[in-house]
Design brief:
The complex is a heterodimer. Chain A is α+β, with helices and mostly antiparallel strands. Chain A has helices at 21-26, 48-55, 91-101, 124-129, 176-187; strands at 29-34, 38-43, 66-69, 72-78, 81-86, 106-109, 114-120, 146-151, 154-162, 166-172, 192-194. In chain A, the strands form two sheets. In chain A, strands 8-9-10-7-1-11 form a six-stranded mixed β-sheet. A five-stranded antiparallel β-sheet of chain A has the order 3-4-5-2-6, with helices on one face. The chains are: A alpha+beta, B alpha+beta.
């Protein structure tokens, strides 16, 4: 039977190990892989409130913005397209909730199609500017903004998480290796470090409505995989 | 010894010495020097040989305009040819050498060209070497060696480069007086500003002036502006940065020389950085370049631009000669003459073309004891490798013969040309200014303002004012209001006021006087212009190419206007009527490495896409092939096995035990919505609305012209949900195709497509033992009754929630297993372990190709070429006759697609079963006809089939379906292969294995 440790992110094979605090604080670019974040695509004409009720996060209506709530981020990708990103292993419960709440809407689990590279550091804007044609200056972008663009030669979904600034780069799984190498190479003259990132807390369905008849009560599906640890270590699991 | 360096003056650090070599000779200079100023301080004027005639050439200018002083820098792979000595910053250990000379700079064999110059006039290469035609390849070798300048390095470039994007409200190009004022104005308004200047420090022309601004020395004032700009967070000041290209919508490209001024290995930073800047408004404060005068012998070392002599004196404390004669047609040369005299050069004479020059500067020059010769011109220059004297004659024909003056330096000024290159690149038309006798920017074609000397305003005070206004206006245009900064109080000679210029282009001279060059870099003389005119190359664009005026690495910075003016005078027309050639990027040469950036690193040249099982393939010796950006295993050769042997082994294993293939790269598209079934009915040629949930169907899609475009199996996941698979290479094209129809034509359909290609890892398990193996890993009932061919189901596979599809591209009993991608490797390993007892064999794409060819299954793009219909493939069964419409339906009813003599897919068996016919080979009738042999078709797929025990091939042959059994000939390079047309299926025609 497949064991939990056999689950492999596209960067697992690089055997990345986290640098210590001194190194990460000296680096101009600090990178981490956020593995196995749950990702669900929503397509359709979706009533505003329904997603908030089902998941606890609202869908942004303004193009290229992100709404957060209940440990989820909802990214506007197109006039009828959103990406909802959540903690590892939440995808099944999320798709289940959405499918029930939004009949007729296309709900697709795309968790495995991308991995996430989190970048921060004093030169993160300069290094992203080396491959991303977008204007990421605070006057033009900023926390809570997202965009579909390219970095180097890879298509990416870029999400500015905070004003530090910290960016999550959702990259196509098959190109993760390329993009990681690209970032490392671009940042090399200035100093790059790898860090471990604590995984966001597990996702829970929103508290049920107090009035009757809103939505059927939520029943969690049986866990597909053994329970995962509380952190996402940036170092690799030894592969056999 | 820097015997030509003054002990004071200039902005160099005399306390430190930098050692460098030129042609192997060890010399010294100071921080702040350019290679040119250091060479001149050491008394070296002769720095190169000219392009065509190999004439001795010296330093002419002091900056980017330099046409002559092109040197080779560095060693090995880091060599840079054609570097301008005038813009090369000196550093300790700099290695420079002269170019285009053999065996040495002082004695150059190529100088014989000068003797033979009558044989090589403009355009000689269009006229000579024409006969016999074949001999050109012989001549070319010698011409290539004799012509040209520097040599490109032969080793790989060891340097690192970088590229980046940047955005701003206001981009200021040039940080001279106008640019600094513009930047200050824009920055104070709160706009995001980028200022780019090509020099190491901001200041531009101020660095060579003796003035004070608000009481601060002109050479120091830029530092105070720099400090102010650098204190603002949204202002970027880039030095050593040349804006080289101005493209549509205010997109500009600049090259920053990050570490070129440092000794090798001193910095880990990239050598150069390419900036791709999007600016909302651009201020062009690019300055002006002094125009040379055209007179016989004007190319001899020691003939320099007057402003360059002044700059070398004021900025670098260098005397460019001992005795100077000035030749001018305007007032600005008087400023240069005065400063040269102050620097210690004995300026003996000012030769002025104007009949009666007057004014303050004239009087001041006079008061320093400089002789004035008005209404005169230099008629010739004496000397072999350096100026030794000049002949001066009156412009009045009746005046007595020439007068000789001894000198080692000629300072010339023909006026000033605003640097309009970028404005012109952006589409701004240039206007002729009669009083300046040059082109100035006309109405801006885009969000752009020219300021200062670039706009034809040459005085310092006027430049400061014009810059401040331009910066304020630029900021206001982008929504930032502010007051224009005050113009500093300037004391000293500001150069304001009219140039009082009288155009002087050239004087007809006899060949005995020597060559008069208007283009020094390309060795073009007035005689060449005359020749071009005689031969009717009078259009300015023809003239440029015929004479090569304005070509080469300097792109005519000093030669352009003179060339046009001479052409105009010979045509007897006004200069504006002649016009000017188009300015194009780049303003200065750009190293290829800077354009490539970090992509020079081979791993980053193009993304390599890897499947979840990639590391297993690598560890198991996979021989990879590129499929688009994907790396797919082609086969897995074992120790001592050739690639062909591995393919044979793998192909056989899939039909005798179990083969396992990584199919993760196949495109997968999730299609959902109330109209999903209707949508697929329109996209595919066959029917999908009748497909039951839990079942799959093979589909073929055509373009609207009826030609096969892609194929694959689509499964019905739910009533309104399908999973479409596409070919690996076609995945994104198909998704775009679907979106195009949904978004532009069928907007009424409610259908959503989402790529899930990489969400799933896909493994094809094929072969007679495959059911036994897969059954070990799942509780699902996989018997043929419960789970027939073309069914699919959700299942736990080795504990992983996934899907099993009963589909097969090999023609064997087969299963395709889909699990979430991060479990792909785990499942693969599980299968390999569990399958060991059955002799499980991983197979690659080539075995997959052989297996499908044995069954006659097509590959879209290999057995089709964009002119192939489903009927041509013998797949009429897949074209629905019930549907009202689908993409390609009308195309399939065109007379051309109904022709009976179309090329149709058939099988081919070579008479000799050991011969594998090359793919792409032509098929011709048997017996082989005499040439021209009719081409009846071509071989699309061809393999050695271990399961058939012989070679097999697929081919598209004219009227092929009616020719089964016919003998054909395959003419090859070394003989004719005879073959027979057969049905395109070679193995298990009934499909018993597939369904079993």
């Amino acid at each position: 039977m497949a064991e939990h440790w056999q689950r492999q992110s596209p960067l697992t094979h690089l055997g990345l190990s986290a640098h210590d605090k001194n190194e990460t604080s000296a680096a101009s670019l600090v990178m981490a892989e956020l593995r196995f974040l749950a990702k669900v695509t929503l397509r359709g004409r979706i009533p505003g409130e329904s997603v908030r009720t089902a998941l606890g996060v609202s869908l942004p209506g303004e193009p290229n913005t992100v709404m957060t709530g209940n440990n989820l981020s909802a990214l506007w990708l197109g006039p009828d397209e959103w990406l909802i990103v959540g903690p590892p292993d939440a995808e099944r419960a999320m798709t289940g909730q959405l499918a029930k709440a939004l009949p007729g809407t296309a709900v697709v689990d795309v968790t495995e199609g991308r991995t996430t590279i989190r970048t921060r550091g004093p030169m993160v804007l300069d290094i992203l500017a080396m491959g991303c044609p977008l204007d990421l200056h605070p006057r033009a972008f900023g926390p809570g903004r997202c965009a579909q663009s390219t970095l180097g030669r890879s298509p990416i979904i870029l999400h500015q998480v905070d004003g530090a600034p910290l960016f999550d780069i959702h990259v196509e799984r098959s190109q993760a290796d390329y993009l990681w190498t690209w970032l490392e190479t671009a940042g090399r003259p200035y100093g790059v470090a790898v860090e471990a990132v604590t995984a966001p807390p597990a996702w829970r369905r929103p508290a049920p409505r107090r009035y009757p008849g809103a939505f059927p009560p939520f029943a969690p599906s049986p866990s597909r995989q053994p329970t995962r640890g509380a952190t996402v270590p940036a170092r690799s699991v030894p592969s056999s | 010894m820097q015997s030509w360096r003054n002990s004071t003056g200039g902005i160099i650090d005399r306390s430190r010495h930098l050692s460098f070599t030129f042609d192997g000779k060890r010399l010294s200079g100071h921080p702040g020097d350019t290679l040119a100023s250091a060479l001149l301080a050491n008394g070296i004027h002769l720095v190169g040989r000219s392009f065509k005639y190999h004439r001795p050439r010296g330093i002419v200018g002091s900056g980017v305009e330099e046409p002559n002083a092109l040197v080779r820098l560095g060693k090995g792979g880091s060599v840079e040819p054609n570097a301008r000595a005038t813009t090369t910053e000196l550093f300790d250990g700099l290695v420079a050498s002269s170019q285009n000379r053999w065996p040495s700079l002082a004695f150059d064999v190529g100088a014989l060209n000068s003797v033979a110059s009558g044989l090589i006039p403009a355009g000689f290469y269009y006229k000579t070497f024409m006969w016999p035609a074949k001999a050109w390849t012989f001549y070319e070798r010698f011409i290539r060696r004799a012509a040209g300048l520097g040599q490109a390095p032969e080793e790989p470039d060891p340097d690192v480069y970088e590229k980046r994007y940047a955005h701003c409200d206001v981009l200021v190009v040039g940080a001279g007086p106008a640019g600094l004022q513009a930047a200050r104005a824009a920055a104070r308004s709160g706009a995001r500003v980028i200022v780019a200047d090509e020099q190491a420090v901001p200041g531009g022309s101020l660095l060579g002036e003796h003035v004070t601004l608000d009481g601060v020395a002109g050479q120091e004032w830029p530092d105070s502006v720099r400090a102010e700009l650098e204190s603002m967070s949204d202002v970027t000041l880039l030095t050593r940065t040349t804006v080289v290209g101005y493209y549509n919508h205010n997109f500009l490209v600049a090259v920053e020389r990050v570490t070129d001024h440092l000794p090798a290995g001193e910095s880990a930073l990239p050598r150069q950085r390419l900036w791709k800047i999007r600016a909302r408004h651009v201020v062009l404060a690019t300055g002006a370049i002094e125009r040379p005068l055209v007179f016989p012998g004007n190319d001899l070392p020691g003939v320099m631009l007057a402003s360059a002599v002044r700059a070398f004196a004021n900025r670098w404390g260098v005397r460019c000669g001992a005795r100077a004669v000035v030749f001018t047609n305007n007032d600005s040369a008087y400023r240069s003459a005065i400063d040269a005299a102050d620097c210690g050069i004995h300026v003996t004479t000012i030769v002025d073309c104007r009949a009666a020059p007057r004014g303050r500067l004239v009087e001041e020059a006079h008061s320093r004891g400089i002789d004035m010769m008005a209404g005169s011109a230099i008629a010739g220059v004496e000397g072999r490798k350096r100026v030794r004297g000049v002949a001066i004659s009156s412009l009045d024909e009746s005046a007595p013969a020439a007068l000789r003056k001894e000198c080692d330096l000629v300072m010339m000024s023909g006026g000033w040309n605003p640097t309009v290159h970028l404005a012109s690149q952006s589409g701004t038309r240039l206007a002729w200014d009669e009083s300046l006798a040059t082109f100035v920017p006309g109405d801006a074609a885009t969000h752009q303002t020219s300021a200062g000397a670039a706009a034809g305003t040459f005085g310092l005070v006027e430049c400061l004012r014009s810059g401040a206004l331009a910066g304020t206006e630029a900021a206001a245009r982008t929504g930032f209001d502010g007051e224009a900064p005050a113009v500093p109080e300037v004391e000293g000679d500001t150069g304001d006021g009219a140039l009082d210029l009288e155009a002087f282009w050239h004087r007809p001279a006899s060949p005995r006087d020597g060559k008069a060059f208007h283009d020094l870099q390309n060795d073009v003389t007035t005689a060449d212009v005359a020749l071009a005119t005689r031969e009717n190359y009078v259009s300015v664009e023809h003239f440029k190419r015929y004479t090569t005026t304005g070509m080469g690495t300097d792109q005519g910075k000093t030669s352009g206007v003179n060339g046009l003016a001479i052409l105009a005078s010979l045509r007897g027309e006004a200069i504006p009527a002649v016009g000017h050639t188009t300015y194009r990027p780049f303003y200065t040469p750009v190293t290829i490495g800077a354009l490539a950036g970090i992509e020079t690193n081979g791993d980053l040249y193009d993304p390599v896409r890897k499947t979840p099982m990639h590391t297993w393939h690598e560890k198991n010796g996979a021989h990879f092939e590129d499929v688009g950006q994907w790396k797919r295993p082609y086969c897995y050769p074992r120790a001592g096995e050739t690639v062909d042997e591995a393919v044979q082994r793998e192909t056989l294993a899939a039909r005798t035990s179990i083969g396992i293939l990584d199919a993760s790269t196949l495109g997968k598209i999730d299609i959902q919505g109330a109209d999903a079934a209707e949508f697929l009915d329109r996209i595919y040629t066959n029917m999908f609305s009748t497909l039951k949930v839990g079942r799959c169907r093979y589909g073929l899609m055509c373009r609207d012209d009826g030609m096969v475009f892609d194929d694959g199996v689509t499964a019905r996941i739910a009533e309104n949900r399908f999973l479409m698979s596409t070919t690996t290479g076609g995945a994104s094209t198909v998704l775009n195709w679907l979106e195009e129809w949904l978004q532009t034509e069928w907007t009424d359909l409610e259908v959503y497509c989402t790529s899930v290609t990489t969400h799933w890892a896909a493994i094809a398990v094929a072969g007679p033992k495959s059911r036994a193996l897969v059954s070990e890993l799942t509780r699902a009932d996989l018997s043929a009754e419960a789970f027939p061919f073309m069914a699919w189901r959700d299942a736990d596979i080795a504990g992983i929630a996934g899907r099993i599809f009963r589909i097969s591209f090999s023609g064997e009993t087969g299963f395709e297993l889909h699990v979430p991608a991060s479990y792909g490797l785990a499942l693969w390993r599980n299968l390999m372990t569990a399958g060991e007892k059955y002799g499980i064999t991983a197979y690659g794409t080539e075995a997959m190709h052989v297996l499908r060819a044995e069954k006659g299954f097509i590959i879209a793009g290999q057995d089709t070429d964009g002119t192939t219909t489903p009927h041509d493939l013998g797949m009429s069964w897949i074209v629905s006759k019930k549907k009202k419409d689908f993409l390609g339906m009308r195309g399939l009813s065109r007379p051309d697609t109904l022709r009976e003599d179309r090329k149709q897919l058939v099988g081919l068996l070579a008479d000799d079963s050991a011969v594998v016919i090359p793919e792409g080979a032509h098929v011709s009738p048997q017996p082989a006809a005499r040439p021209p042999v009719p081409m009846e078709g071509w071989v699309s797929s061809s393999y050695m089939s271990p399961n058939c025990g012989r070679s097999i091939a697929l081919a598209l042959v004219r009227r092929g379906h009616d020719r089964i059994g016919e003998e054909v000939a395959i003419p090859l390079e070394n003989g004719i292969v005879r073959a027979r047309i057969v049905k395109p299926v070679f193995f298990d025609e009934e499909g018993a294995r597939l369904r079993g």
